[in-house]
Amino acid sequence: MSEYQPVNQITLERIKAAYQASAKIVALYGDIYLPLFERMHQELKKAEAAVDLKTLALQIGGNQN
């Protein structure tokens, strides 16, 4: 069972799930849904970049939590 997350919590995992779902929608219903997939692709890349940037900052500055 997965951990409960509030609906307004946007996580990398949720973006990945939406990305996969949008790809399935295009496969099932056609090119009209390509803009949806394109948007999810952009959001995934943006979220991955943010995670990478935070990881880099923590490596350089030390994890002070």
Notes on the protein architecture:
The chain is 71% helix and 0% strand. It has 65 residues and is mostly helical. α1 (12-29) packs antiparallel against α2.
Briefly summarize what is shown.
This protein is 71% helix and 0% strand.
| CA gyration radius, whole angstroms | 15 Å
Number of E strands: 0
Structural class: mainly alpha
- H/E element string? HH
Query: What sort of overall outline do the alpha carbons produce when their principal axes are compared?
Result: elongated
Runs in which pLDDT lies below 50 for 5 or more consecutive residues are none
Beta fraction of the residues?
under 5%
Mean pLDDT: 89
* Largest sheet properties: none
- SS element count, helices: 2
Q: Helix amount, in percent?
A: over 70%
Core attributes:
elongated; 65 residues
Question: How is this fold's topology laid out?
Answer:
Layout: H1 12-29, H2 34-61
Helix pairs in contact: 1-2
